[in-house]
User: Which sequence fits this backbone?
């Protein structure tokens, strides 16, 4: 079971930037790297469904249309850390952001909750003047 812990959330003004980090642990003995896992970021605004923001299989990435060109997902496998760089933030980007992982060795880019096997605890991002 993979354990994920997000950090980096906070309050930012519209047009500002924020970088979220996700530290992974709890790997199977002998396979201590996130390189085996497809990873993603989700967000959930009050009263709305959890939606996929970006995902990374390690070979390719995908983004929701609402964030394309503004957000960038990346990973540092040596540090077992996933990142989400968020630029040109808008009020509608406000929500709880979750780090997520699909099963190891899967080729599915996790952009839907049903594809996720591990979730982080979430970190609040608020975009407001």
Assistant:
């Amino acid at each position: 079971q993979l354990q994920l812990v997000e950090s980096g959330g906070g309050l930012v003004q519209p047009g500002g930037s924020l970088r979220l980090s996700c530290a992974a642990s709890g790997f199977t003995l002998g396979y201590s790297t996130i390189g085996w896992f497809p990873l993603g970021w989700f967000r959930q605004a009050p009263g709305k469904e959890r939606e996929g923001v970006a995902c990374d299989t390690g070979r390719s990435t995908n983004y929701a249309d609402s964030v394309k060109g503004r957000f960038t997902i990346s990973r540092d496998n040596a540090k077992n850390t996933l990142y989400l760089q968020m630029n040109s933030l808008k009020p509608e980007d406000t929500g709880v952001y979750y780090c997520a992982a699909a099963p190891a060795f899967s080729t599915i880019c996790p952009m839907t909750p049903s594809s996720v096997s591990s979730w982080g605890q979430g970190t609040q991002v608020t975009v407001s003047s």
About this structure: DSSP finds no helices and eleven strands in the chain. Residues 39 and 101 are 4 Å apart (CA to CA).
